[in-house]
Amino acid sequence: MTKLCLLEIGNTDIDSGLEYLPISLREFDCMSAERKEAKVNLIAEELRKLGEIGENEKEKKVGEITEKQRDNLKEQVRQLQKKLEDLQIKENRIEILPENS
To answer: Which UniProt keywords apply (predicted)?
Structure first.
């Protein structure tokens, strides 16, 4: 996959794994016009918030990802994974205290 330049995952239920995208990737299609409930919309929405998906129709169909943008996405995924781990640790530490009779 080191030579992958274009990835089209539109209309799928793929909603994670951006951190594994190769540096060679230049175009990434994650639009889901046919399936509004597709999980890939989560990725598209995050990219839209970051301004990585353009506003004109052509840019909406294929968002171009630079190495810097991919690194930013990887960092965001790492931060979210850390938050999830912290929440899981906190959840495991919570004890149910006995009620005072």
So the answer is: Coiled coil
